Amino acid sequence: MKIAVCVSHVPDTAAKINIGNDGKSIDPTGVTFVINPYDEFAVEEALKTKEKFGGETVAISYGPDANKETLKKALAMGIDNAVLLKSSDNADSIAVAKALAEEIKSQSAELVFFGKQSVDFDNSVVGQMTAELLGYNSVTVAITFGLEGNKITCEREIEGGKEVIETTLPAVITAQKGLNEPRYASLKGIMAAKKKVIVEKQPAEASNGIEILAMKKPAMRQVGKILGTDASVVPELVRLLREEAKVI
Amino acid sequence: MANKVLVFLEQRNCQIKKSSFEAAKVGSEFASKLSGSVEAITVGYEIDGLEKVGGYGVSKVSHFKNSELINYSSSAYAEIISKFALDNGFDIIFFGNTSLGKDLAPRVAVKIDAALAMDCISLNFENKEIVVTRPIYGGKVLLDLKLNSEKKVFVLRPNVFNAGIATEDKAQVAVENVDSPNMSVKVTEIKKSEGKLDVTEADIIVSGGRGMKAPEHFNMVEELAQTLNAAVGASRAVVDAGWRPHGEQVGQTGKTVSPNLYIALGISGAIQHLAGMRSSKYIVAINKDKDAPIFQIADYGIVGDVFEVVPSMIEEIKKIKS
Questions:
Q1: Which of A41, A158, A174 is best to mutate for the B interface (most B CBs within 10 A)?
Q2: How far apart are CA A197 and CA A231, in angstroms?
Q3: How many Å lie between the alpha carbon of A198 and the closest alpha carbon of chain B?
Q4: Chain A residues inside the 8 Å CB shell of B147
Q5: Strand locations in A71-178, DSSP E?
Q6: Which DSSP state fits A221?
């Protein structure tokens, strides 16, 4: 079975984000970019599935040359091949999904893993959109994944609990934290990844339905009051919450 | 353009969710601003009180009904809604940004060829167009955007838009029986976390961090939460350490929350945590370290020992509640 995993290259969650001079993009100066944290769970699940059932794994990323670093990370973890769908555009989700769907089709991958969302634009839509374009079944925000024959059983996180979902291949699964424990790349894996060639392709241009008007930092909150340094101020805290804030 | 607006009403356990009434209110407001019309659609089996959506300005609801649709099915729900929208020429659809809405809206957007704005926290009407504000980078940045497409889908963050008080108006409910829905993806069971409130749905959250020192000390966090009828949250550090389940994690790789009150116990306030809870209406921080970044955004702070302060809070709140 061919298993694909789609990965994105995003600012580390510990990074401070500043707005660029155009007011419509972020200033990448001094920002460390990493593999999207949720995509590590997707890579791990692709590797585990291959270990269990055999087959071949391919990592696909859409974006500029810098994304190769994230593809290398996936290769170092053990993914067999990597494809960069090269684009410098700030494409919207549907454009990305269209390019990914084309590539997945040409690879004839039957099972596709994504992270449940990229921690840059936080849309959490590309997995579902890609599945729709391919006509694949899909389950999002998966915290368990099981495959038997062509039958898939997943648990999906919902408000206050989880849903058990059944579907069949071909399918797209988006990974939530908790799905597995992503492995560290071994030294051997890192060395092997260095020798692998990342295939570069030019995706077809897609129209962009979203117009970015501006990016801004959220308003600073007013610095509040330090009420004291021990439990003696608790009655005052409770009074403020009740009478001033009216929240309890 | 016709400006026909459609609102998706989400049901769980045969009840319409509050976030759907918020979407109905927003949908009816924008329909009138755009000199258009508004209707609602829902999918499920038996659903209580559907006519109540009339109180939020939506006078007609189409209820697509089949016993198999009692739980969510991405394949069936997406097909039904898209077909209804295409057949009836709807050009704007509103959803709530819930776990179901997030899963469903992008599928519908693809099927009807619409541009999509997820997790909207404000919608403004400028030059006869809808301008969306939504948080990105886990809330570190706010993005203003507009959708340049004939059809548009907006997905609204729950608890941000005010549904207001419902009027007495009742909506007309049209039941459409669905024959053999596409159940290629289906829910076979729902496992509830017993008696626990979810952080994304709670009015009050009590969160604990590494300052709680050990997993067993979360009893105290839970007790305070219970006293306040609040949900329990956690920082990434304690989730990664295995002290708490990841469903409780607040922050950039956990949940983004905006409760009325957020109480941070022993949380220093890493940038990714602050991004996920800074839009809370009121923030209380209790931490030993006076330089902890959490105090920069807290409305009320106590620079002190959680093990001393929290039991006293529980006692004090019990006193006023009794």
A1: A158
A2: 62
A3: 28
A4: 209-211
A5: 81-86, 111-115, 137-148, 151-158, 161-168, 171-175
A6: P
Closest CB to A213 among B131, B245, B260: B131
Alpha-carbon torsion (A197, A40, A137, B115), positive or negative: negative
Tens digits of per-residue pLDDT, A79-134? Answer: 999 999 999 867 899 999 999 999 999 999 999 999 999 999 999 999 999 999 99
Residue B226: CB atoms within 10 Å = 14
Say what the pLDDT of residue B213 is: 97
Percent of chain B with pLDDT over 70: 99
Residue in B261, B297, B301 nearest the CB of A226: B301
A220 vs A184, residue with greater confidence: A184
pLDDT tens-digit readout, B160-189: 899 999 999 999 999 999 999 999 999 999
pLDDT of amino acid A111: 98
Q: Does the CB of B187 have a partner CB in chain A at under 8 Å? A: yes
Mean pLDDT of chain B, nearest integer: 95
Q: Which of A177, A237, A229 is nearest to B282 (CA)?
A: A237
User: CA B182, CA B77: separation in Å to the nearest integer?
Assistant: 8
Assign B1 a pLDDT band (cuts: 50, 70, 90): low
**Nearest-CB residue to B138 (from A13, A168, A215):** A13
- What is the Cα–Cα distance from A59 to A78, expressed in whole angstroms? 10
pLDDT, position B193: 81
Residue B7 identity (one-letter amino acid): V
Q: Do B72 and A211 touch (CB under 8 A)?
A: no
Integer Cα distance of B122 and B131 in angstroms = 8
Distances (CA, A) of B38 to A23, A70, B155: 35, 45, 16
Rounded mean pLDDT, A21-28: 95
In CATH terms, the fold of domain A2-201 is Rossmann fold (3.40.50)
Pick the CATH number of B204-321 from 3.40.50.1220, 3.30.420.40, 3.30.9.30, 3.30.2290.10: 3.40.50.1220
Q: How many CB atoms lie within 10 A of CB B272?
A: 24
One fold for B4-177 and B204-321: yes
Query: What is residue B71's three-state secondary structure?
Result: coil
